[in-house]
Specification:
Blueprint lengths: L2 E7 L4 E7 L4 E5 L6 H13 L3 E6 L11 H8 L3 E3 L4 H10 L15 E2 L5 E4 L2 E7 L8 E5 L4 E5 L2 E2 L2 E2 L9 H12 L7 E4 L5 E2 H7 L4
Parallel strand pairs: 3-4, 4-5, 5-6, 10-13
Antiparallel strand pairs: 1-2, 2-3, 7-8, 8-9, 9-10, 11-12, 13-14
GO molecular function: hydrolase activity; metal ion binding
Keywords: Hydrolase, Metal-binding, Zinc
Protein name: MBL fold metallo-hydrolase
């Protein structure tokens, strides 16, 4: 069984997810931890529960989702994976990080690329990769069919959707991604978003004002 822990980090109130199963192996998704206190929050949890992180995977590469990657890569000596189309966004972070009050950004090396149809494995568990661009050119999401959830990043929120006014954003493409990739999932799937509270596919199909 996959256990999902949520950490809310940095001034953007970004949701970082730590997924682990009964083997103790774990994946870290979208680590937004920036300062020492935030980094300690997630590493203390990992150590207190005897977990073994095996990979960092990101839905996309906007600044609020990538701040903790390098520190966690170094601490646990684990690879980092991202969709290839979001590599330019990752490389751009260094140039604007100070504008958002982040004095330094240590750009992580991408070890492998993820694409739709790939599967991320940890312990006895797996996540299926789906491609959901619009908020970012290389935005992906992670689906688990056994426990009926999706780690959706900044695509679909409770009663809202991701912004599309940032470089590479495309409003119509985002709406298409949601309709064709997320709203085709069963209504009872839980959506773990990049910000704010959890929601479900069924609730958003019925109530989201963008649809």
């Amino acid at each position: 069984m996959i256990h999902i822990e949520t950490f809310v980090f940095n001034p953007f109130a970004e949701n970082t997810y730590l997924l682990h199963d009964d083997t103790g192996e774990a994946v870290i998704i979208d680590p937004g931890c920036y300062d020492k206190q935030e980094l300690a929050e997630i590493t203390d949890y990992i150590e207190a529960n005897g977990l073994k992180p095996v990979q960092i995977i990101n839905t996309h590469a906007h600044i609020d989702h990538v701040l903790g990657i390098t520190a966690l890569k170094r601490k646990y000596q684990i690879p980092f994976s991202l969709h290839a189309l979001d590599e330019p966004l990752l490389k751009a972070v260094q140039s604007y990080a100070s504008n958002y009050g982040f004095a330094s950004f240590d750009e992580p090396e991408i070890d492998t690329y993820l694409a739709e149809g790939d599967t991320v494995h940890f312990g006895n568990s797996s996540l299926k990769v789906i491609f959901v661009p619009g908020h970012a050119p290389g935005h992906i999401a992670f689906v688990n069919e056994d426990q009926r959830f999706v780690i959706g990043g900044d695509v679909l929120f409770h009663m809202s959707i991701g912004r599309t006014d940032l470089p590479g954003g495309d409003h119509n493409q985002l709406l298409s991604s949601i309709r064709s990739k997320l709203f085709t999932l069963p209504d009872d799937y839980t959506v773990y978003p990049g910000h704010m509270q959890l929601t479900t596919i069924g609730f958003e199909k019925k109530n989201n004002p963008f649809f």
